[in-house]
Predict the structure.
Amino acid sequence: MEFKYTLSESEMVTAMKLHGKESKNVRVALVLLGALLAIVAIFTPNKIYPILIIAGGILGYFSVYIFVIPFQARKQIQRIKKYTI
């Protein structure tokens, strides 16, 4: 039995996002690290630096998840379509 199926661009993006999603342990570690930085922010005289670190980490994570992974998935599907018959 032979089965042929071509992934659509949206299916490829969804699959890459699912693959890029971290495990529960990684999310717990990120939350603990954020909590640790928040505690440090409470007890330091320069409170802005830990807050900026937390915000930068959150923005970096979501920018990769929202922008970079779909861009790479679309680029990869175009490359696959280019070399397949």
Remarks:
- Helices lie at 9-20, 24-43, 48-83.
- The chain has one domain: 22-83.
- The CA atoms of residues 1 and 59 lie 47 Å apart.
- Residues 22-83 form one domain.
